Amino acid sequence: MKKERDDKDPLKVVGCARGHSHEELIRNLPRHRDFTPFLNQQIKKIPEVILRNSGNPIAKKINCMMREVSTEAYRAKQFTRTEINNHGVLYGVVSLKHRVIDLVLNYFHERWPECVICLYNEQTIKTTIIDEKGIIKEFNSPLKKIVEKVSNDRPNIPYFNDIQFSGEKIFETLYNSQFISERENQTFFNKMIPDKCYRLPGMRGGVEKRFRNKRINDYF
Amino acid sequence: MPSTLEKIRVLGENSKYDICASTASSRTDKYPKLFGDSEQRIGAVESGGICHSYTPDGRCMSLFKTLYTNKCIYSCKYCFSYNSKKKMSFTPEEYARVFMKLYSMNVVEGIFISSAVCGSADATTEEMLEAIRLLRFKYNFQGYVHFKCLPGVSQYLLKEAISLSDRISINTEASTKDHLAQIAEQKDFNNDIITRQRWLKQLRIKNNEKAIKAMRDKNQDNHLKYQEKMIKDRREDGYKKFRWDGAPILNSGQTTQFVVGAAENETDYDLLKRIDWGYKKIDLRRAYFSSFIPIEGTPLEGKHPAPLSREHRLYQSDWLLRIYHYKLEDLKEILTEEGNLPKGDPKIFLARRYFKDHDPVDPNSATYQELLRIPGIGPISAKRIINLRTSNFVFNRRQDLKSVGVVLKRAEPFLVINGQNQTTLNKFIDTNDNKIAP
């Protein structure tokens, strides 16, 4: 659909390149933890021209909030490490400040449509699950209890229990094998995995983190 | 008998110089059941790709990238396998299960399967295909697969590889027959590599036409008709009009890789000429460059490593050819006497050369092609400028350009904004006697 443009309003025209529409904001901004109904009312009153102008203070704030939401969802997809049990239950731990758990669950559901996905959010101390039909439910119980409960209702289908090494060990071996020492570039590496990402549950004590810690011998 | 872990360590290390994109598929739900019709499918393709970890050199590590075997009949002088003492192979089942385990941990996004040539290219490819078949039809994996074809492989195996993969590639390694003979004398450049690349193009077009026709007959979907056109649609100069052609089979197309700096006297121009040929003749989606790093125990052990900056400049030039649609002749003009790219951003050199004979351009009147010639303006910002102009918007402030994504620091010397062009001190100096002009 072709957007109507007011030729006399440069802000509207220039702004069309960037920013978010009213619909996008109303749909996604409530995911932010600092979102209030008052902000929603404010957004509805402000014309889209202003919302799309990144120089405007309110637009700046809204863009920043939208970015925080999308970044958190993306980081969770990247760095959540999961495990699968013999009952087709895939589970893991996340640390989400904003309300993006459904996005992360849907991402895993797309990959494992036949499995039940359980994610425990450290921030809210809640476990959220998505079943085979894509229905999302939230529980106040810890992850272990929920996984056990869900597993009891499902048939035993051994997935990968004949593999004699732990998944972490396999990944660590693969990860270490890919490093080309001649191309080491710590600045670039730090840019790709920022420090704050190491606070995510999947990254704690992960191989990537270990690589950054120099041993005493490295200084001699 | 080496353990699975040992195999991952050795074969992973042997494949670390192979380069690939994280995942590069725009495959969508429009083409369901490409790889088996089981309802218990596992895996999906993210169009943007997701990187689950990064190596300390900053490279994204999102694919399960190992060789299938490192037992090789070739003795390429630059290759890891030349001196590898530990020879081993995966079994198809072992390979598939290890990958599925990693996929369940959400540490990999897909597969990059490559191999040395054990016995014959066909025998090794058969085994590699068996591993992929297991993944696709036993484990119902629907995610991303990049299949590396071996030189000299038969056409019927290529045909099967195409139907099972998202992306396929054959390493060209060097730009010409003579250069390849220097580093891998057993490989026949024309027969083993170029002919296979041509086959890949033909097979891909043929398979896609067939698949789209079948789907159209079934669905009567007009959208597919559009995609059929996209697959065929080409620019006059041979380059693809669209980055993604929307093909259901082998969606991410064909790529290739070069070892930069291993062969003597191989210039940047030789490499650019070869990729230009690739884009025009074999529907190459993109090329990868890997700077030569000498490996201990190989005949090229004493050779100097190729600078990483050379690799970077080649990538920049490749971008100019592929995305900006510069002509190879344009790039030829900025090359040094030896035929290499100058140190620095090739686009700036091209712009300096172009604007020697042309006046700085006004964004309010410049054509799309002229805008693309300006450093700091890419295809997206150029399109935005053109779109805004059609809405009668006039660019008379620097801020207007900045807000559409132009990098002013680079673009300003080549632009006229509101009748003014950025000047430099040199303009005030009389070049004849180096005096400041009045």
Major sheet strand order of chain B = 1-2-3-4-5-6
Return residue spans of chain A where pLDDT drops below 50 for at least 5 consecutive residues.
Answer: 1-17
- Mean of residue pLDDT values of chain A: 83
Based on helices, strands and strand pairing, what is the structural class of chain A?
alpha+beta
Number of strands of chain B: 10
Low-confidence runs of at least 5 consecutive residues of chain B: none
Quote the beta fraction of chain B.
5-15%
Number of H/I helices of chain A: 10
Encode the helix/strand succession of chain B as letters. HEHEHEHEHHHEHEHHHHHHHEEEE
Instruction: Sketch the topology of chain A as an H/E string, one letter per element.
Output: HHHHHEEHEEEHHHH
Topology:
The complex is a heterodimer of chains A (220) and B (438).
Chain A: H1 10-15, H2 22-28, H3 37-45, H4 48-51, H5 57-79, E1 82-84, E2 89-94, H6 101-111, E3 116-121, E4 126-130, E5 136-139, H7 143-152, H8 167-177, H9 186-192, H10 207-212
Parallel strand pairs in A: 2-3
Antiparallel strand pairs in A: 1-2, 3-4, 4-5
Chain B: H1 4-14, E1 63-67, H2 92-104, E2 110-114, H3 121-138, E3 144-148, H4 155-164, E4 167-169, H5 177-183, H6 189-219, H7 222-232, E5 254-260, H8 268-281, E6 284-291, H9 308-322, H10 328-333, H11 346-357, H12 368-372, H13 379-390, H14 398-403, H15 408-411, E7 416-417, E8 420-421, E9 429-430, E10 435-436
Helix pairs in contact in B: 2-3, 3-4, 4-6, 6-7, 8-9
